[in-house]
């Protein structure tokens, strides 16, 4: 930025009206100082895009705003414009202010422009947040001088949710002597965390686990070996669902398989 001149020094010569060598003159120095009038808006460009991790501790510094002003007497103060704040969930659906109040989640220091976490942010609630920040020159000589800038915050996912089965427990039934590969049923768990893969395993008595197979990717349950109703009326097992996070999180539910009798004995 070119430095502005605020002072000028002029040398002034005065001549009288005498002819030729009879003419007389005199010199004088004039100092001119240009007094600044505070009449320029703050310079405050958009702040781009940054990322923070969900569950970031309260008080953590996110960024610092730094507006400039051409006026020498400028005094800048910062504020969040809560009315223009926008937040969207992971499906891109805008959130209502009652569901996400920007003023509650962020603390902006009006003097130094530092932005900090005021409340723990849950990515499963808000994934993209757009803040509008006001920079005002409170020393203006010509009325309000306010500039605004946008900051987009991407909330990154942390593995903070256990997989959750869609049912509190699962109950299936099959006929005894069903062929290996017969579908018994299916179990499903969901994970609120983003891009998590669920892996399923069966837990239980070894002799029971030899009879049933669980696809660890799909959650489909199949007959693995011949099941005799006269030996097993019910098969009771536990299904464990584990996500792909680091460290992984898991949950368990019970699965009950009723073995139905068929007329296979004399």
Automatic annotation (TrEMBL):
Keyword Glycoprotein on entry: yes
Keyword Signal: yes
Principal location class: membrane
All copies of domain Cadherin, residue ranges: 2-44, 44-165, 166-265
GO BP annotations listed: homophilic cell adhesion via plasma membrane adhesion molecules
Bilayer topology: Single-pass membrane protein; Single-pass type I membrane protein
Superkingdom, taxonomy of origin: Eukaryota
Gene Ontology CC annotations of this record: plasma membrane
InterPro entries, per database record: Cadherin-like_dom, Cadherin-like_sf, Cadherin_CS, Protocadherin/Cadherin-CA
GO molecular function: calcium ion binding
Pfam families named in the record: Cadherin
Keywords, comma-separated and alphabetical: Calcium, Cell adhesion, Glycoprotein, Membrane, Repeat, Signal, Transmembrane, Transmembrane helix
Subcellular location: Cell membrane; Membrane
PROSITE patterns: CADHERIN_1 (PS00232), CADHERIN_2 (PS50268)
Classification via PANTHER family: CADHERIN-87A, NEURAL-CADHERIN-LIKE PROTEIN
Protein name: Cadherin
Species per Swiss-Prot/TrEMBL record: Oryctes borbonicus
């Amino acid at each position: 930025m070119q430095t502005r001149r605020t002072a000028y020094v002029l040398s002034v010569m005065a001549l009288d009206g005498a002819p030729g060598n009879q003419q007389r003159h005199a010199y004088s120095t004039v100092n001119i100082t240009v007094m600044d009038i505070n009449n320029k808006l703050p310079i405050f460009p958009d702040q781009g895009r940054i990322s923070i991790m969900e569950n970031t501790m309260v008080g953590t510094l996110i960024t610092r705003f730094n507006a400039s002003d051409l006026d020498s007497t400028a005094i800048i103060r910062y504020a969040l414009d809560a009315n223009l704040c926008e937040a969207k969930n992971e499906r891109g659906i805008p959130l209502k202010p009652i569901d996400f109040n920007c003023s509650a989640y962020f603390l902006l220091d009006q003097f130094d422009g530092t932005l900090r976490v005021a409340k723990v942010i849950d990515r499963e609630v808000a994934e993209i947040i757009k803040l509008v920040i006001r920079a005002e020159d409170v020393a203006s000589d010509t009325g309000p001088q306010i500039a605004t800038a946008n900051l987009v915050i991407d909330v990154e996912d942390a593995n903070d949710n256990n997989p959750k089965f869609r049912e509190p427990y699962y109950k299936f039934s099959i006929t005894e002597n069903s062929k290996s590969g017969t579908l018994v049923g299916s179990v499903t768990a969901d994970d609120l965390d983003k891009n998590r893969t669920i892996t399923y395993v069966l837990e239980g008595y070894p002799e029971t686990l030899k009879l049933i197979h669980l696809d660890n990717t799909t959650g489909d349950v199949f007959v693995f070996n011949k099941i005799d109703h006269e030996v097993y009326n019910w098969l009771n097992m536990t299904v464990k669902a584990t996500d792909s996070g680091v460290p992984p999180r898991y949950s368990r539910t019970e699965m009950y398989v009723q073995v139905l009798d068929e007329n296979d004995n004399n």
